[in-house]
């Protein structure tokens, strides 16, 4: 493996993206660490750059959670409910007006059953 490091240099420690897929590095991280340890114990200097470590959060600090959709939309939903409640008296009056019985015509009373008459009385002209 030391030969691969000499031959390819830093590129032997990095994975390659070739032909649409990632290929493993020529020298694995474990073997590179063993080689580095041998060089440092022998009193030499490791010629390859150190891998950059990611910054970690201090213990107890966590990334804020994204939240749920219903929590994000709660304000808009409450505003819509308040608007609908303000319009509620008009809505109720319109509903009650639509449910009032309409007088049945003489022809309907003669030719229809009681159930059919009742159904026609409840239907408003706008719902036909």
UniProtKB/TrEMBL annotation:
Q: Which Pfam families match?
A: Mitoc_mL59 (PF18126)
**Region of interest called Disordered, as start-end residue ranges on this chain:** 45-74
Large ribosomal subunit protein mL59 domain sequence ranges? 18-97
Which PANTHER family does the UniProt entry name for this protein? OS05G0114600 PROTEIN
The protein here is known as Large ribosomal subunit protein mL59 domain-containing protein
Q: What is the species of this protein?
A: Coccomyxa viridis
């Amino acid at each position: 493996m030391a030969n691969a490091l000499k031959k390819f240099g830093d590129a032997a420690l990095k994975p390659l993206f070739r032909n649409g897929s990632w290929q493993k590095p020529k020298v694995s991280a474990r073997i590179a660490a063993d080689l580095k340890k041998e060089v440092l114990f022998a009193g030499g200097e490791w010629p390859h750059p150190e891998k950059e470590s990611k910054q970690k959060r201090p213990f107890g600090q966590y990334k804020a959670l994204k939240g749920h959709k219903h929590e994000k939309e709660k304000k808009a939903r409450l505003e819509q409910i308040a608007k609908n409640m303000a319009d509620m008296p008009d809505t109720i009056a319109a509903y009650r007006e639509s449910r009032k019985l309409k007088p049945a015509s003489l022809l309907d009373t003669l030719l229809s059953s009681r159930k059919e008459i009742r159904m026609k009385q409840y239907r408003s002209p706008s719902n036909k």
